[in-house]
Structure formats: C-alpha cells, structure tokens
Specification:
33% of the residues lie in helices and 32% in strands. By secondary structure, the protein is α+β, with helices and mostly antiparallel strands.
Length: 582
Amino acid sequence: MNYQVQLTVATGPCVAARRRTARGTALCLVAFAATLAVSRPLHSDDAAAPQAAVTQAAGESVALKFARHDLARWTEQVKRLGETAAVAAAALDSANKGVADAKAAQAVGDKALADAASAVTAAEQAKAGAAKAVADSLEVLKKTAIEKQGDQAALTAANAGVDAAAKVVEAATKQLADAIDARKQAESNKVAIDKKPAEVETAVKPATEAKAAADKALADVQPFLTLSGERLTAFEKTPPLPDPAATRLVQTITHDRPLLACRFDANGDGLFAGAEDNAFHRWDLFTTSGIHSQVHKSWLGAMACLPGPAGTVLTGGHEGKLTWWTAADSALSAVRTIDAHKGYIRAVTVSPDGTLVATAGNDHLVKVWSATDGTLVKELAGHTRHVYNVAFHPSGTALVSGDLLGVIKQWAVGPWTETRELDGKVLWKYDTGFKADVGGVRSFAFSADGTHLAAAGITDVSNAFAGIGTPCVVLFDWESGKQLKVMKPKDAFQGSIYGVRFSPAGDFLVGAGGGGAGGMWFWKLDDEKSFQAIGLPSVAYDLDLHPDGLRLAVALFDKTLRIYDLSPKFEAVQVSAPPATK
C-alpha cells in the first residue's frame, strides 16, 4: 500500500483519480462579524464580506476576541494539568509512604521476633531453674524422711516444698509453651511483613512515571499560557493584521495515516480532519485529545461546516457518500448519510446562509442538497470530466464549479441555470505521451468582498505521469469574468496547489500544496510572483483559515496537521505546541 500511495502522489492523472483537492471559499467576514454577536465565528467554507467586518460592532477585533478565548482555554488547561500533577504527586507520596510504613513494620516485626526469641530463652531458663528446684526439694524430702522419721512437721514442710517447686515447674512449662507459640506467631508475621515492602514498592515506579508525565505535561503547557498572555497584551496594544513574513509553525498534530482534509471548528477550539483511514477526526487544540468516528467506507477527503452554533459538519467520501455530523458534543455523531455521487466526492461547500450544500464528483455532476434534511434540490450537468471543486459566491446568488479540464461554470442559485463559463484551462494539459489529462481546478476561493475568484492547481505540465508542473493560482475579476493573473511561485517548484485562501483583508492570498516536496506561497493581488514562501515537510492536500484570521492549518501527506501563525511577531519567546496524537 505504501508503494501505491507514493506512486499516486508522483503521478499527474493518478493524483486526480486518488486524491481530493483543497477547496472552499474565503472567510465570510460580513457573516463573521454578524455571527460574533452570538459568539460563532465562521469557517472558511462560509461566504466572504468586506474588510470592515474584521472588527465587531463594539470595536474589538476578531483576533483580540480569540486571543482572550485562547488565554482562557490555556488557563483552564494549566489548571487542569496542575490538578493532575498534584494528584500524581499525592499518589507518589502515598506510594513512598507505603514503602516507608512497610519497612517500619518490618523493623517492628524484627524486634517482635527477637523479643519472642528472648522470651523463649528466658522461659527455657526459668523452666530449667524450676526443674532444679524440684530436684532439690525432692532431695530435701528424702533427707528429711531419713533423718527426721518421726518429725511429721518437718516431713510436711518438705512435701510442701516439693509441691511448691512442682507448681513452679508447671508454670514455667506453660510460660515456655506460650513463649514458643508467641515466637511462632512472630515468625509467621515476619514472613508476611517481609513480603510487604516488595509488594508496595511495585507502586512506586508507575507513580513516579505518572508524576513525571504529569509534571512534563504541565511544564509543556505553561509556556503557552505565558505566550497567550503576551499575545493578548500585544493585540490589545495594536490590532493585529496577518503578516506572511512572520509565518511560523505553532502546533503539530500527528496521526497514523496521511491527512486529506481539515477544517477549524467555529470556536477555534478544535480541528476536524479526514484521512486515508476512512474516519472523521476532531482534535482539541488545547488538550490535544482526539475523538474519531468511522461511517465512510473509503477515504474521507471532502469537508465543509454549516454556519451556526450547532457544530454540524459535512463530509464526503471516496465511495460517494455524503454525511452530516453533529460535532458539538464530546462525540462525533453521524446524523445522516446519503448516496450523493457515483464514485469519488471531490468537494463539499455550503451556501452563505447555510441552507444549501453543493457537492462535486467524479460522475461529472454538481449536486445541490438541502442542508436541513439532505434532499436533492438540483442536479447540475454539463461538465465532461471529473468535477473537482465547487464554491458559492459570497452574495449567495451564484455557484461556481471547476473540472479536470479547467472549465469553470457559473450557475445561478435558484433557477440553477448556467450563466457563463470562465476559462481556467491554463490549469489543464493533455499529455500526448501518456494520453492522459492532468491538472484541473484543485481549489476555489472568493475574496472577502466577492470581487475576485481564485482557482488553483498546476500549470506548465511537462510530465503527466510524474506530475511535473508548476503550482499555480488563476485570479479572475468576478464582475467581468476576465482572467487577471496567473500566479506562480517566485522560485522554481514542482507540484500543484490543493488549497487556496484570501486573507481576511483581501490584500493577499495563500496557496498550499506540493509534489515531491510541500510548500505554502503568498501572493499580492497585483503580482504574478509570490512574495513569501514557506517550506512544508510534505504535500499539503488541504488548507483552512482559523476564525481569528491569523492562523492557517494544512493537512499533509506525512500524517500531520500543522498550524501556522501569521500574526505579527512580538517580544516573547516563541514555542512549538506539544504534538497531539491519535
């Protein structure tokens, strides 16, 4: 299987056949600001809106709101881990006290056995003395009987002496028997007492390890409490704007399979993900704990979040099933699963008002569903190849879909008529040598104000089988439908872009992807060459924007989810978050 995965990554058409693309539109800042009133930031699947909505009505920036939230969560986490460390310390103290008590009891047992042995010796000596006294009294009686035959009083006294000595012997014999029994009991107790230290010492090692682990977990998290406080202070002084030049890795989540899709949850507390294990995952970004559920029968590569506080997430699998999940509770509960497409679901997106869901598949179809009950609203036909991506315009009046050939169709929401076709064919090539199509619209994003559409993928393909080409973003003017720019990395790079997002302010866009290696690139809207590049350890198959507008998550082939911070750097120690595991 490993060989097949590596081969799939290396081939152009195989990439199209085996992998989903990153997709979704840019952050909807109008809805973002509106929903902040009810404490629900948007996902990147939501529609976009003007930059003025980056701040709330009260004037506090979205980033500041989330900085406060992060500080509260890290404070809570440090408190929880502190309590755990205290419990672990108490358990270790108890284990050590148990050992000390057992050894003290052992010393007491040793003394008790020694005392019992001494008592036996004393009893033996007392009995021997009593026996001698009897013998002596018998000699006196014998002598008296001979010498004083007629002296009855002397004989009576001599007999009394014998009787008294015999009673002393009887008492000494009983005392000796009691002392021997006591010694046997002390010996038995000593055997049990001698076993106790070894028994209680077995609890010391795990208690020591548990305390060390608890102390380490607390020590690992405490810098984040400090950092979040410093981050909040910096944001309170100066409202932050994303700075690509400041991009740095802040957290890594590890898994045991390559990751294909990722979405931040609405509260910014967790990260949803799909992988090559057919399961739907959610990791808490503060506790690093994960919950995992499996409904799909194939890889899960498409994902979108419904707006609202309910935490509903939709996932599309390679087997063609579309699932609704309730993800607000401690479990991931599948609410509904439908057969959406014949074959691979390439993309899932949600309308700005959250009432509609659009999917794209390998059956050349775009389908629109009711987000409420999952009924089919409309089936849109017209593409002649696999449909790789779909996205709603921020206004909610239009839907775009892009296919393997770089054909981008615009559909009117409601009438569901095709209104025009945009030319993204620079993202496609037919390789005559391998007789295969390669490329396609791997990701869509609308600018916050809806004036621009970005379509991402690969261009300048020279080898379809090896997937050799240049990562590319095609920028369109939405009103005219004209192609404005074909954006490429400044430095030569081979591969494709699988995820693209506009910054909340709309002043730059970011794309992530790769081929033999991974990368993330930043472009200004008026420049065809990237002005910033970040190397990734492997190919990124998805990209999502945190609701604070400052952090990005990428889902990577190397089995990790990585979170990068674009906030301006401030005077504080930058640390990397502890990795989370499945």
